[in-house]
Specification:
The complex is a heterodimer of chains A (about 375) and B (about 375).
Chain A lengths: L10 H13 L18 E3 L14 E7 L5 E6 L4 E4 L4 E4 L2 E6 L5 E4 L14 E6 L5 E5 L4 E5 L5 E5 L37 E6 L5 E5 L5 E5 L5 E6 L11 E6 L5 E5 L4 E5 L5 E6 L4 E6 L6 E6 L12 E5 L4 E5 L1 E2 L5 E2 L2 E8 L2 E6 L4 E7 L2
Parallel strand pairs in A: 24-25
Antiparallel strand pairs in A: 1-28, 2-3, 3-6, 4-5, 6-7, 8-9, 9-10, 10-11, 12-13, 13-14, 14-15, 16-17, 17-18, 18-19, 20-21, 21-22, 22-23, 26-27, 27-28
Chain B lengths: L5 H19 L46 E4 L14 E7 L5 E6 L3 E6 L5 E5 L9 E6 L5 E5 L4 E5 L5 E6 L27 E6 L5 E5 L5 E5 L5 E5 L12 E6 L5 E5 L4 E5 L5 E5 L5 E6 L6 E6 L7 H4 L4 E6 L4 E5 L12 E8 L2 E6 L4 E8 L8
Antiparallel strand pairs in B: 1-24, 2-3, 3-4, 4-5, 6-7, 7-8, 8-9, 10-11, 11-12, 12-13, 14-15, 15-16, 16-17, 18-19, 19-20, 20-21, 22-23, 23-24
The chains are: A mainly beta (about 375), B mainly beta (about 375).
């Protein structure tokens, strides 16, 4: 698996990484013609986030609503400072977390200047809001998941941002960057993540982290952050992953993992036993399960970097994978999508989608 | 941009070597250019494999060096910055329909500044943008949108007149594990939507977008106004339609596309469908290009003095040429130097007003305004 082989430094890693950008296959999923379901018609609220003059969105990695309809947006900004370390080079800054009201009006930022921003804010990967309206950010570069209460106070940290300068003689081997000594892709037991991607909770408050680009596993913690177990490994067999990129839990506690590189959603029970897989919905970059008595599953077949006009549709499904319809396509206009990286579906007929390549959030109203 | 690129560094090394060689063995002398221009003292040439992109010695002396001088003056102290805001290296400059001036600069971060028509600072555009990585250019289109080319982010961002990003072409490489910007390998042909150190952007009357790409890729790419790929042309080299460092681009009213191929000192002209038309190889290295609006269009090209600070090279570079669109040289102006009114490696030209030229320069951190007084033979009124 190309990502797990990446060393932390070195030319080989550079070329490998760059090469994967062009492969296209990993992050682009074609869906067979006979599987094409009906189109769900929808409207986009267009440019509905109202920003202060001096704040500009970059690649929007995550969007999530609160119980009162407010929006949290976590995105990749500019302005990083590089710290050159002996074995690791670091970027400080480069991710910002904003809150908006339900009309899209800007309310505030968590950390209003570069030095005030939380230590984990390096490279936005996602944001989710739990049933108690706590705000959880997932940061790929700091390798952390951080829980804030609604006021912005830090309640829990999972993972630890690597120090900028390594210990003399340290290497990117066992135990560093979340790499374990077990099966490939299984990290160190615990919260030592390697480029985590997403977080979800069951009704009891247990925490599930998809981890991620470096590891290929799901890590389960109790509601207090105590490690319970992990599962996964690198590969395409049932229970293995090729970039587990998004995660959601249904009301019964089943765990849905968007196994993006394998172009499938794998469904596990609450303890990580494989139950089923959902295929033929493309490269599953972002998934979401709506609340309520009848839950729906949404999944985005996001376009790849190499083609902003290929694929891009979002599927609406029953939890068993039955496709109910498809929404939109790739592109740069409103009602088109530029690499959707997150979906919020608190209201199953009002989706918020975060786009990496179009630097925006769209509010979608589904019509049928 | 500067000589930070691989090819740029190579060129700089080759130049240094050539100058040294010439000083020791003047009998080898400057190669007389075919255009018949006289070589001034200190004429410089590069060995095979150097700046000429492998096709043999290329004189740094522009064939059109004897073009008549255009009388000009500089507007003193034109750029007015507020206290504690600093211009960095001046990279791109353009003017909108209201006369406001936009500048792209390599400061501590890459930044874009807006000035009024008198050169007073107004505001910053795209502050803290994800694509502010390594500045390379700025252009304003006919609708006053501001397009910023960033060779580090491999992106070109379209800001609307209010300063909001509304379209992004290309994509910055996703977060590298060790925190430094990584390079993509060279590809020929390159994927339609993946830039590799792009440099500049231009537009035709229909709104089609033309991208010069760039330091590593060697092509010009045409997209429709919505960013959908239409066609590309060019590969690395110095043959017909080939490019060696596509560093600048301009489009005329008929939709013809002029690409500055900097490292082999050619302006390569394509039609609107990117079919090769012709080449102008007599005005030195086209670091920056600009075409004036109006019924009679002119082409300006800067044979910028390289930023390697080689004073021998400066003797034969640093002028901006004024041409007809067919390449006929009407005149030249400017000399290298650090004083006001001189050029210290021009990287951007704005020519919305035919005889009021704005430049941004790399080595002196500034934007300058020049007033030209061309004679009738030089296109003056």
């Amino acid at each position: 698996m190309r990502y797990s082989r990446l060393a932390a430094t070195g030319l080989a890693a550079t070329l490998l990484f760059a090469g994967s950008l062009f492969s296209g296959s990993l992050f682009s999923g074609s869906v067979s013609a006979q599987a094409q379901p009906r189109e769900i018609s929808f409207d986009s609220a267009g440019d509905f986030l109202k920003l202060p003059d001096d704040i500009h969105l970059g690649e929007v990695a995550g969007v999530a609503t609160t119980s009162t309809g407010n929006l949290w947006v976590y995105y990749r900004s500019g302005g990083p400072n590089a710290t050159l370390g002996a074995s690791r080079n670091y970027i400080n800054g480069g991710a910002r977390l904003l809150e908006f009201d339900k009309a899209g009006k800007y309310l505030r930022e968590i950390g209003t200047s570069e030095n005030d921003r939380p230590y984990a804010f390096l490279f936005a990967q996602g944001v989710r809001v739990d049933p108690q309206d706590n705000v959880w950010i997932i940061d790929r570069a700091s390798r952390m998941v951080v829980k804030f209460d609604r006021s912005g106070k830090v309640l829990l940290t999972l993972g630890r941002r690597p120090e900028a300068i390594g210990e003399r003689g340290s290497s990117a081997g066992s135990g560093v960057y979340g790499r374990g000594t077990g099966a490939p892709g299984l990290g160190v037991p615990g919260d030592n993540f390697n480029q985590p991607t997403d977080v979800a909770w069951d009704a009891a408050g247990n925490i599930f982290v998809s981890d991620g680009y470096g590891n290929a596993r799901i890590a389960k913690f109790d509601k207090n952050g105590k490690y319970i177990k992990q599962w996964g490994g690198t590969g395409a067999q049932p229970g293995q992953f090729n970039v587990p990129h998004s995660i959601a839990v249904d009301a019964q506690g089943n765990v849905y993992v968007a196994d993006m590189g394998n172009q499938r959603i794998q469904v596990f029970d609450n303890d990580g036993t494989v139950k089923s897989e959902i295929k033929n919905v493309g490269a599953t970059r972002a998934i979401c399960i709506s609340p309520g008595a009848h839950q729906f599953l949404y999944s985005s077949n996001s376009n790849a970097t190499e083609d902003p006009f290929l694929n891009g549709e979002i599927y609406k499904m029953e939890l068993d994978g039955t496709v109910l319809g498809r929404i939109g396509r790739a592109g740069k206009q409103f009602k088109e999508f530029g690499m959707v990286n997150a979906i919020d579906c608190r209201d199953p007929n009002t989706l918020y989608v975060a786009e990496l390549m179009n630097w925006r959030v769209q509010k979608l109203s589904l019509k049928n | 941009m500067k000589t930070r690129s691989i090819c740029g560094v190579a060129a700089a090394l080759a130049l240094s070597a050539a100058v040294t060689l010439f000083a020791q063995a003047p009998a080898g002398g400057a190669q007389a250019p075919a255009g018949g221009a006289q070589a001034p003292a200190g004429g410089v040439q590069t060995p095979p494999g150097g700046r000429g992109g492998g096709r043999g010695p290329v004189s740094l002396l522009p064939k059109a060096i004897d073009a008549p001088d255009i009388r000009y003056e500089v507007v003193p102290n034109f750029m007015k910055m507020p206290p504690n805001v600093y211009m960095g290296e001046g990279i791109g400059v353009d003017i909108n329909s209201k006369g406001h001036i936009f500048v792209n600069t390599c400061a501590q971060q890459t930044r874009n500044f807006e000035f009024d028509e008198k050169g007073n600072f107004i505001r910053e555009i795209g502050k803290d943008s994800y694509a502010n990585v390594f500045c390379h250019g700025l252009r304003v289109d006919a609708q006053d949108n501001i397009w910023v080319s960033d060779e580090g982010a491999n992106s070109i961002v379209k800001y609307n007149p209010e300063g909001r990003a509304v379209m992004i072409l290309g994509r910055r490489i996703e977060y590298p594990l060790n925190g430094i910007e990584q390079s993509l390998p060279a590809q020929d042909p390159a994927p339609p939507y993946v830039f590799n150190r792009p440099t500049d952007v231009g537009f035709d009357a229909a709104g089609n977008i033309f991208v010069a790409d760039g330091y590593v890729n060697s092509r010009v790419v045409k997209y429709d106004k919505n960013g959908r790929f239409l066609k590309q042309a060019g590969k690395r080299g110095s043959g017909p339609g080939e490019l060696t460092l596509a560093h600048a681009i301009a489009v005329d009213a008929q939709g013809n596309v002029y690409v500055g191929s900097r490292s082999d000192q050619r302006i390569v002209v394509f039609d609107n469908d990117l079919n090769y038309k012709t080449v102008y190889d007599h005005v030195g290295a086209p670091w920056s290009l600009c075409i004036t609006p109006g019924p009679h269009q002119y082409l300006y090209s800067s044979n910028s003095n390289p930023d390697n600070q080689n004073t021998e090279v400066h003797k034969v570079t640093g002028q901006i040429f004024k041409m007809e669109l067919d390449g006929t040289v009407l005149g030249k102006f400017g000399v290298p130097g650090k004083e006001q009114g001189q050029f210290s490696t021009v990287h951007g030209i704005a020519c919305r007003n035919e005889n009021e030229i704005l430049t941004t320069e790399i080595v002196e951190w500034r934007m300058q305004k020049f007033i030209l007084h061309p004679t009738a033979a030089q296109g003056g009124k």
